[in-house]
Design a protein that fits this description.
The complex is a heterodimer of chains A (157) and B (472).
Chain A: E1 2-7, H1 18-25, H2 30-45, H3 50-62, E2 69-72, H4 76-83, E3 90-96, E4 103-104, H5 105-111, H6 118-121, E5 126-129, E6 137-144
Antiparallel strand pairs in A: 1-3, 2-5, 3-6, 4-5
Helix pairs in contact in A: 1-2, 2-3
Chain B: H1 3-16, H2 28-50, H3 67-85, H4 92-98, H5 104-118, H6 130-142, H7 153-157, H8 164-175, H9 192-211, H10 215-225, H11 234-247, H12 254-263, H13 268-281, H14 287-296, H15 302-313, H16 318-329, H17 336-371, H18 379-401, H19 411-431, H20 441-456, H21 465-471
Classes of the chains: A alpha+beta (157), B mainly alpha (472).
Chain lengths: 157, 472
């Protein structure tokens, strides 16, 4: 399955989830950062109850810096809107991975009979847990600076 | 409106750890106000610590904030979303600033909410482009500070209607057995908690009278209780009364109630309050004209009548304020009876003007943060809009300052406005005549206002943003 990830910085082939990135940038070791992110991930992949699961799903989607997932989507245009945020250059990662290895937020909600979260449902968010490693692979990285509109007048009064 | 805004609202409450169920037993208006009060209390310290009006979010990355700061900002942005949903439009200002925050998911929510409130359309959730964000900020700078945004609080809060009666029975029995408590003991000020007290007081008193179908007593109660001190609470009082009508399922027949008001010979100021109540049930463009004819004068020309209508309609738009000035300027030419009516209403008008001036200050200050960020694409466009808006605001202040020679009771107030107009003109030539934004423009702007307050109220030495509005 091909998915896209839009971001502002180029991380090369070392792609981490936002919460790990945040900790690394603030001087924590990779082990410390991974441990904290793993704790958050456990709430989503092995929740004690449904209440905790719903709350963890909301937390991970509402605020990206609290997410233990690299956020991806099957739609390039959505990844592009994240990359171009703030009107400056950004990057689109094209990533390949097996369908069943992604954390499919909409699907997890549906399976647990949670109502769809309207604010984020449209993103079709697919999460890659913690860091980018096999079975996920980066296919391509593009630097993108703006969307150019190409228009041709086909009718004019 | 779709359910997505309700989801945004509930999400925001969850983020702050507030449980809506707790509030659902209250009458509609009290429910909104109690909830607003609790949300405000949740964030009041955080807002003070963060000094939001100085934050240049665009220049920062997520890593520049400590974990505690991020938690605080998360709480504030969600509190602002909830407060805007509850009809507190002044919280649009921080939301506009948060569009620059390096957390895209918050901007998705803000963009959706703004689309619903400003464009009145059910938008689609999306990441707003930078150009769209600049457009929102530009709109904030160049238009009327969102003072007339759509109020969606009723839609947000309406559910489980039946439970409301329990609240009345409980409160009436234990707290309001003597519902004719002397009005003189009620001292409302501008704080939100007092707003709550005001809402409760009017709800319970009106409920007891209307439940007995004692309509004359209800009208007399409102008429007797209205004086200048209640002007800041006009919306609260109107909404509380509307709540009672709805909770008791009283059919509102506009002609029946108009006749009742005529029979009871209510005061002019009270008629403005009753207009607000009537307008909630019977929104009709002729209603204000009817009120002018019944309670003020029926002999004025259409153009002059329009001035009085503006007082009833009470919009905070600059155009409405200017119309009011034009109307007052001809004061000396009016018949004596009209002059007397104007005297009775000048407090409500001056209150509106005071609010308008305070709004100019806070909106311009917020605007300065939005464009005085060096690397931000689109800043020049925002700066240009600011200059245009600034000039327009100065012109309006010029129009208002003419009233210093007309309204004797408020001449000191309008003299201050005249001084403000003059020092703004000086500021414009020093700081807004350049093509590029001057570095210290925001500090100088704040100084301008503080100096104005110092100059016009010599006895006050420590003026800050919290108390300057009260000093006016």
């Amino acid at each position: 399955m091909i998915v896209y990830h839009g971001c502002k910085s180029l991380y090369g082939d070392k792609l981490y989830c936002p919460i790990i990135n945040y900790d690394l940038r603030n001087g924590k070791s990779i082990d410390q950062a991974l441990f904290k992110a793993q704790t958050l991930l456990d709430d989503l992949t092995a929740p004690i109850d449904k209440f905790m699961l719903q709350s963890a799903l909301d937390d991970a989607q509402k605020t990206s810096f609290k997410s233990p997932f690299i956020s991806t989507t099957p739609y390039r245009s959505i990844a592009r809107s994240f990359a171009l945020n703030r009107g400056t250059t950004g990057f689109i990662y094209t990533i390949e991975g097996p369908d069943d290895s992604f954390f499919d937020f909409n699907n997890v909600r549906a399976k647990n009979n949670f109502p769809p979260h309207k604010t984020f449902e449209w993103m079709n968010e697919l999460g890659i847990p913690l860091e980018l490693k096999l079975p996920f692979e980066i296919i391509q990285i593009e630097e993108i600076s703006e969307i150019i509109e190409i228009a041709q007048v086909v009718y004019k009064k | 409106m779709d359910t997505a805004v309700k989801e945004l609202f509930n999400d925001s409450l969850d983020t702050m750890g507030l449980n809506y169920v707790k509030y659902s037993q209250l009458p509609l208006n009290l429910r909104g106000r109690t909830l607003s009060n609790d949300i405000f209390n949740e964030i009041s310290n955080d807002i003070e610590q963060c000094n939001l009006s100085d934050e240049k979010f665009y220049e920062k990355e997520i890593y520049d904030f400590s974990e505690n700061d991020l938690e605080t900002h998360q709480k504030i942005v969600h509190a602002c979303i909830a407060l805007v949903c509850l009809g507190h439009n002044s919280y649009i200002k921080p939301l506009i600033n948060y569009l620059d925050f390096p957390e895209i998911r918050w901007t998705i929510k803000i963009d959706y909410l703004l689309n619903t409130l400003i464009n009145s359309r059910n938008g689609t959730f999306k990441v707003p482009t930078h150009a769209e964000k600049i457009n929102w900020q530009n709109l904030f700078i160049s238009k009327t500070f969102y003072s007339n945004l759509k109020d969606i609080s009723n839609i947000i809060l309406t559910d489980d209607k039946k439970q409301r009666f329990n609240y009345y029975e409980y409160s009436y029995k234990f707290n309001f057995s003597n519902d004719l408590a002397p009005l003189s003991s009620i001292d409302f000020s501008k704080k939100i908690s007092d707003d709550l007290e005001c809402a409760e007081y009017y709800y319970l008193n009106c409920y007891s009278r209307l439940k007995r179908k004692d309509y004359n007593n209800f009208i007399t109660f409102i008429d007797d209780s209205i004086d200048d001190s209640k002007i800041p609470f006009i919306n609260t009082i109107a909404k509380s009364v509307v709540d009672v009508f709805n909770d008791l399922d009283i059919d509102f027949n506009v002609n029946f109630w108009k006749n009742k008001l005529i029979d009871e010979k209510i005061g002019v100021l009270s008629s403005v309050f009753f207009y607000r109540i009537f307008n909630s049930f019977h929104s009709n463009k002729n209603l204000a004209r009817d009120f002018v004819k019944i309670f003020l004068v029926d002999s004025l020309s259409f153009e002059k009548n329009n001035g009085f209508e503006n007082i009833y309609k009470s919009t905070n738009k600059g155009e409405s304020i200017i119309n009011y000035c034009f109307f007052i300027k001809d004061y000396e030419t009016y018949p004596r009876s009209v002059k007397l009516k104007i005297t009775e209403l000048d407090s409500i008008c001056s209150y509106k003007v005071r609010d308008y001036v305070a709004n100019i200050y806070s909106s311009e200050k917020e605007s300065l943060v939005l464009f005085s960020q060096y690397h931000k694409p689109g800043s020049k466009q925002l700066y240009k809009s600011f200059k245009k808006r600034y000039n327009k605001n100065t012109e309006i202040l010029g129009q208002l300052s003419i009233l210093k020679d007309i309204l004797s009771k408020y001449s000191e107030f309008y003299k201050k406005i005249s001084i403000l107009r003059d020092i703004r003109t000086g500021f414009e030539s020093s700081y807004l005549s350049t093509k590029n934004v001057k570095e210290n423009i925001k500090d100088e702007y704040v100084n301008l206002f503080h100096n104005w307050i110092q100059e016009t109220t010599k006895e006050i030495h420590n003026v800050n943003d919290d108390n300057f509005i009260d000093l006016m």
